[in-house]
Amino acid sequence: MKMGRFEGFYLSVVLNSFLLFCHGGTTSRYVRRLEATADMPLDSDVFCVPPGCNAPQQVLHITQGDLEGKALIVSWVTQKARGSNLVLYWKEHSNKMLKAHGKSKKYNFYNYTVSDFVVLFLQYDTKYYYMVGVGQTERTFWFLTPPKPGPDVPYTVGLIGELGQSFDSNITLTHYENNPLKGQTILFVGDFSYADTYPNHDNNRWDIWGRFVERSTAYQPWIWTVGNHELDFAPRLLTLIVLQGETKPFQPFKHRYRTPHRSSGSTEPFWYSIKRGPAYIIVLASYSAYGKYTPQYMWLEQEFPKVNKTETPWLIVLMHSTWYNSYDYHYMEGETMRAMYELWFIKNKVDVIFAGHVHGERSECISNIAYNLVNGICSPVKDLSAPVYITIGDGGNLEGLSTIMTEPQPKYSAFRDASFGHAISSIKNRTHTYYGWHRNQDGCAVDGDTMWFFNRFWHPIDDSPDDDS
């Protein structure tokens, strides 16, 4: 197994288009085991605590710290005692040391307490080294900042969802690390540690997961979306003394995984936006209120006009609960959000929507905006003005894979495969993006599903639906 080492007290930084090639209406014939996977044992090397007295661990969450990509949030944990909150960082080939002091936070969840974070201010397209645990047990890592946003800046993202901490999770992360198409950041579509599946939502499982993924999260930003397994809403948790319910959702996530929500005018860390190279990325929360007049709705209404497709031509949306799903599992769970927002997505030319919750599907360019209670027309139709929906909740969770699918395969479903894996989306320029999905059973360079996208803003074809449709 791959080592992922650290310790713990906290410190906190495509595609609405045209299909060029695709596997139309394909269901993979790959035969896989159907049983749930198993979590790795607690003494696995990927869960090791880093050596040294109170060494910083879970140097996870380096994530973007502002809208434009010139700031980074660094978070870590020191579990045994309060550690140094100083971060030293410097450019490659530079002797000039920069300093940043972090803030410490604590949270209580049932019988668990922990927390800390710092924001670094940076230059575009630069390699930086950074050190945590300064003056104590020091650990050094590095990262690359993104290029300045622009329409023809090539940029490659990895895509993972529902990772967990199983044997399959380790295979997925290793497979991603070995992919020759190197992702510069990961878009993560929710369901992190699955700590909520253990008695009392065992928050030590968050620590274990943090040490497991540190081998990636300490070196490249992960852009986070919350899933249902981050809710951690447990009003009936019972202590030995009194009934102490956990009635505030998302407590572990909020304290462990910072997001740059304030830089995009958001009031909560669950929905926000960032720019990365030629992409404008909007993160939405499937499990926060999204109806009319809610904070998320009002924020999104003001967000779309900010998208400048001459600067960031690719508009990507991340969420957890998929809207279009031909599996029996979680079928239509995203329907109410779809009914609220789908027309917005089409009018604002969202290119692709990445979601999780189910394991492995890509749609055609489809919409269901013609439907209303009067006409009763409720079948999704091909609509070249609509986004492509890609579901990638197949990282390796212990619940296993969804394998029961609707038959025959719906016309709106272009490709589906219930296998664990990851994806790479490589934005080439303002007109082209290449998407490839990689199942764990294949070689690292093998694409299980591929698609080319043309950007409609820079490829002017009349793709609007007919008035009578």
Automatic annotation (TrEMBL):
<dbReference type="Pfam" id="PF14008">
    <property type="entry name" value="Metallophos_C"/>
</dbReference>
<dbReference type="InterPro" id="IPR008963">
    <property type="entry name" value="Purple_acid_Pase-like_N"/>
</dbReference>
<dbReference type="GO" id="GO:0003993">
    <property type="term" value="F:acid phosphatase activity"/>
</dbReference>
<keyword id="KW-0325">Glycoprotein</keyword>
<keyword id="KW-0378">Hydrolase</keyword>
<dbReference type="InterPro" id="IPR025733">
    <property type="entry name" value="PAPs_C"/>
</dbReference>
<feature type="domain" description="Purple acid phosphatase C-terminal">
    <location>
        <begin position="386"/>
        <end position="446"/>
    </location>
</feature>
<dbReference type="GO" id="GO:0046872">
    <property type="term" value="F:metal ion binding"/>
</dbReference>
<protein>
    <recommendedName>
        <fullName>Purple acid phosphatase</fullName>
        <ecNumber>3.1.3.2</ecNumber>
    </recommendedName>
</protein>
<feature type="domain" description="Purple acid phosphatase N-terminal">
    <location>
        <begin position="57"/>
        <end position="144"/>
    </location>
</feature>
<dbReference type="InterPro" id="IPR041792">
    <property type="entry name" value="MPP_PAP"/>
</dbReference>
<feature type="domain" description="Calcineurin-like phosphoesterase">
    <location>
        <begin position="156"/>
        <end position="360"/>
    </location>
</feature>
<feature type="signal peptide">
    <location>
        <begin position="1"/>
        <end position="24"/>
    </location>
</feature>
<dbReference type="InterPro" id="IPR004843">
    <property type="entry name" value="Calcineurin-like_PHP"/>
</dbReference>
<keyword id="KW-0732">Signal</keyword>
<keyword id="KW-0862">Zinc</keyword>
<dbReference type="InterPro" id="IPR015914">
    <property type="entry name" value="PAPs_N"/>
</dbReference>
<dbReference type="InterPro" id="IPR029052">
    <property type="entry name" value="Metallo-depent_PP-like"/>
</dbReference>
<dbReference type="InterPro" id="IPR039331">
    <property type="entry name" value="PAPs-like"/>
</dbReference>
<keyword id="KW-0479">Metal-binding</keyword>
<comment type="similarity">
    <text>Belongs to the metallophosphoesterase superfamily. Purple acid phosphatase family.</text>
</comment>
<dbReference type="Pfam" id="PF16656">
    <property type="entry name" value="Pur_ac_phosph_N"/>
</dbReference>
<keyword id="KW-0408">Iron</keyword>
<dbReference type="Pfam" id="PF00149">
    <property type="entry name" value="Metallophos"/>
</dbReference>
